UniProtKB/TrEMBL annotation:
This is Serine--tRNA ligase. ATP binds at residues 260-262, 276-279, 350-353. One of its GO terms (biological process) is seryl-tRNA aminoacylation. Residues 137-411 form the Aminoacyl-transfer RNA synthetases class-II family profile domain. Keywords: Aminoacyl-tRNA synthetase, ATP-binding, Coiled coil, Cytoplasm, Ligase, Nucleotide-binding, Protein biosynthesis.
Length: 431
């Protein structure tokens, strides 16, 4: 959430930001309500003060008549206070609903507009090259090599789930090892997180845990939800805690399953592993000082690029436009990998993203830092970034590394964990 004082002093800019992000919000109404709340709060405090004075004076009354008069005056003051409090609660609830719906401000360099306005920043070290043979998508390749069982999973859990088999299972574990090894060398603390979190943590991070618009699975009769990303658990790790400034930045590498309802997702673009209800992800998360967050955001993007350059996958990096940003993000970069089997002739598909959420999440979760020798505390900045989302990385590897004979070359950086150079072809024939 935003600082209330900032909203009151910059209402026009906040409204323009909401409009640019396609968010419906009446900032002027919030300002009016918040101003009324502050005035009512002062009146309530004054009525409470007067009632206390009268209450203390009752014992000093000269006779019964004066005593009863002072009791009546106290009763009227309490009734007035209760009426004002009811007005305050009603107005504060409406103001709070608007306040919680306001998105983060937007980086001045982020493109303005809808999804189509996102700007390409760079391409990867590996270039897209035409394949001079009939291209198969990952579903066809998986069937040929017995890598993924969609039908078996559908019988057990429904559409959108899957079994990874044979080399696909080995590739999942190899991708985890590859990403974690790189991040640990960069000073990240490896962390295996819970797959469940309370509703207040999801709301604090910026996810909607319940309601018609949620993409979250909830556990009936419990205030628990399956996490859509370990951003939720890592972000909530320091909720309500004040961190020493000297300990920042804190860099965490989270390994977790991710669960998403993917309500409304359909069509050829969502075929196979692209939109599924469960997948494994290695996530980067950082808590920083405010002046550190922009550099950390660029650093996260560079790490994502390093991971996919190492895999030899063609990609592009996009600076995401304001209308396509989630509520917490101040700025967001997406890395889209080239997927030759997607669409007609190949398409880019998102495989990672990284966001600088500034102090938006930390205000909701009350995560602060304290500088030695200074009074008071301030809110940390939080950042998240996907190191590797296994399901989509598998699509990119299978489709980009397929060969004319239908075999699939395994990226060199993964071979030490998979134990072979390719899936199918002459190598498997020899075995």
């Amino acid at each position: 959430m935003l600082d209330k004082r900032f909203i009151l002093e910059n209402a026009e800019s906040v409204q323009q930001n909401c409009d640019a992000r396609g968010m419906k919000a009446d900032v002027a109404r919030f300002v009016k309500l918040e101003t009324e709340c502050r005035s009512l709060q002062q009146e309530i405090e004054e009525l409470s003060r007067q009632a206390n004075v009268v209450s203390k004076s009752i014992g000093q009354a000269k006779d019964d008549a004066e005593r009863e008069a002072r009791k009546e005056e106290g009763r009227q003051l309490r009734e007035s206070k209760e009426a004002k409090q009811a007005d305050f609660d009603r107005i504060d609830a409406e103001a709070g609903a608007i306040y919680r719906s306001l998105p983060n401000m937007t980086h001045p360099e982020s493109p303005r507009g809808g999804e189509d306005a996102s700007r390409e920043l760079r391409k990867g070290a590996t270039q897209v090259t035409p394949m001079r043979f009939p291209v198969q998508d990952h579903v066809q390749l998986a069937e040929q090599h017995d890598l993924i069982d969609f039908e078996g999973a559908a019988r057990i859990a429904g559409h959108g789930f899957y079994f990874l088999r044979n080399e696909a299972a080995l590739l999942e574990m190899a991708l985890q090892q590859y990403a974690v090894e790189l991040l640990v060398k960069e000073g990240f603390t490896p962390t295996i997180t819970p797959d469940l979190a309370r509703g207040e943590i999801l709301a604090g991070v910026g996810y909607i845990p319940r309601g018609p618009e949620t993409q979250i699975y909830t556990v009936e009769n419990f205030d628990l939800n399956l996490v859509a990303t370990s951003e939720i658990t890592l972000g909530g790790l320091y909720a309500g805690i004040t961190i020493d400034a000297d300990d920042l930045p804190i860099k965490l590498c989270g390994i977790s399953h991710c669960f998403r309802t993917e309500a409304g997702a359909a069509g050829r673009a969502s075929r196979g592993l692209y939109r599924v209800h469960q997948f494994t992800k290695v996530e980067m998360f950082a808590f920083t000082l405010p002046e550190q967050s922009e550099d950390m955001h660029n650093y996260f993007c560079e790490l994502e690029c390093e991971i996919f350059d190492g895999l030899g996958i063609p990609y592009r990096v996009l600076d995401i436009a304001s209308g396509d940003l989630g509520g917490p993000a101040y700025r967001k970069f997406d890395l889209e990998a080239w997927m030759p089997g997607r669409g007609d002739g190949g398409e880019y598909g998102e495989v990672t993203s990284t966001s600088n959420c500034t102090d938006y999440q930390s205000r909701r979760l009350n995560i602060r830092y304290k500088t030695k020798g200074e009074k008071g505390t301030n809110f940390v900045h939080t950042l998240n970034g996907t190191a590797v989302a296994i399901s989509r990385a598998l699509i990119a590897i299978m489709e980009n590394c397929q060969q004319p004979d239908g075999s699939i070359l395994i990226p060199e950086v993964l071979r030490k964990w998979v134990g072979k150079d390719r899936i199918g072809g002459a190598e498997d024939d020899d075995e």
